[in-house]
């Protein structure tokens, strides 16, 4: 017999996956992870599960009422690693974050309040906080609207994401190595964690332009081997330890903007080239661009003023990040990060998990 577990299938930003109430999943982490792998699929095609055979479509959000903040929700992100039959809960996911507010309202974890509802989210992966502004006319989540984000066809209702304290979310500090620039295998890198651990590198240092297509970069075996060597070497320096089985840090190659933005990116997550760029990955790259002396110096352009609207170009368009910056010119401090995302409820019901998972046979 199979076990039915209630869930919603949702798009969040430019990702999609299953959303669960935490109470509907096993409390034991090992069993919970086995359930998630069975639900999404364990093989490279994820033929026996709901996953889409790609990192962006093999994601899970686990949501419950906050244990520390009445009226807020707790959100745990789980990446089901495609083809490896395992789960990584190290990083946050800012795309699926956009879906957890609507999910909480749809499932009654929170009540809508007026035409727009503010949802306070505690991100359990990192201990950071975010506020989501959800459109809720007549007390129901509105999915239709005119907001457009690259990487997603059409338009939807806007979801404003205000991150309150994401510096050092996973690594413990904004610059986890303690340096603005490190040299790894003869290549200069900037390691930054402003919501997502990212290694920022100049595309030119790897003999490419940084404007190649995603497919071309995915086919570049030599480039991917060099990037992985840098990633493995820098992992311990970023306080991440051995990262061979982790999806962080992400690797972001940068080049000068060419489509009206402020920097052009090609990001690996960590081994496949992203069709766009992750939400928090974009925040970390934009942050690296404003740091004096980083690898982005002379590559990115940085707007003037304390509030910087940074446009991060990626293979399928651009991602706008608003940074409210304090401190000094020599030592800038990112005080607040604002982003625009959208989400959509695709399907709801039950996902079925084979009995063998519960007996430990799978």
Concise description?
With 362 residues, the chain is an alpha+beta fold. The protein has helices at 29-40, 94-106, 214-218, 221-234, 279-290, 355-358; strands at 3-12, 15-21, 59-65, 73-81, 86-88, 116-123, 128-135, 159-163, 182-184, 187-193, 197-202, 250-255, 263-268, 307-314, 317-327, 332-341, 343-353.
Describe this structure in words.
This protein has 362 residues and is α+β, with helices and mostly antiparallel strands. The protein is built from six helices and 17 strands. The chain has a 17-stranded mixed β-sheet that branches. β14 and β15 form a beta hairpin. The protein is globular and about 60 Å long.
Strand content: 25-35%
H/I helix tally: 6
Low-confidence stretches: none
Distance between the termini: 14 Å
Q: How many beta strands in the DSSP annotation?
A: 17
Oligomer: single chain
**In angstroms, what is the radius of gyration?**
20 Å
Topology as a string of helices (H) and strands (E) = EEHEEEHEEEEEEHHEEHEEEEH
Global morphology: globular
User: Structural class given helices, strands, pairing?
Assistant: alpha+beta
Mean pLDDT: 95
Biggest pleated sheet: 17 strands, mixed
> Helix content range of the residues, please?
10-25%
